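User: For my dataset I need records formatted as: sequence, then structure tokens, nothing else. Please produce one.
Assistant:
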Amino acid sequence: MKLNREVQTLISRFDSLLSGAIEAHFSDIERTNASNRAIDIVKEGMNYSLLAGGKRIRPMILLEMATAYGAELKTALEFAIAIEMIHTYSLIHDDLPSMDNDDLRRGKPTNHVVFGEDMAILSGDALLNLASELMINASISLDSPEKGLRAMYEILQASGSKGMILGQVADIKYHEGVIDREALDFINANKTGKLLKAAVLAGAILGRADDAELFKLKSIGEAIGLLFQLVDDILDVVGDESKIGKRTQIDLQNEKCTYPALLGLEQTRAYVSELEQSILMEIDKLSCQSDFLRSLVLFLSRRDY
């Protein structure tokens, strides 16, 4: 992908930035015999999943959009760290025995396998809460705190009961009956798409994007979210486990409806190609021409991990 040089530097250091944020968070707690073990346990659980690798797509998008629309990169970085923490918390909870019951994530045993289900839940909760703290503190430091609060609103709404959580509820409950295309689109738009869309919008909001531009970006963000899920579904059928870092055929084993299951594999691949071209055409209509967005779309549609 074509990344701004500053963004590329930040992404290459992202693990240290993430762990640094957690370390700073706990630095003002008085260390005592009573607190030491609890602090170390929760830090280890948070860091285990947060630093397990991954494509860092959401923070990358947020930072690139912030740069493209003239935001201060220092502030945008706090939001990028926060959105990755939220994404990671959702994966920890998604993998739980009561949810998808996955034992492998990013090529490593999942959080609950290593630390137990109770500590996995608490590690996820801790990441979600820390993400909110980071965004609030970053917003307060802005000359115009309203921009930060608007960006935070987009991210939290996308990850809450109007977005990711709503999609997860539907994903768990809808597979008990017959799922049609409308239901499948609803699940994926909320469970996966909205946080990706929020990364696009939050970065632009922190910059100088006006409402007309944000309206266009909203449509692009939604389409990118769908594109991501379509390819994820394809990889669950034909992907290489050693590349994607998790078990394949999980959706089939869990009897979940996916786009290949509903449309067929070849039709899903054709849909990816059509959507790729449609998004590229919409990107051309933006006032801010971003090579990154184009390269992102091509990467997402053609990735094998």
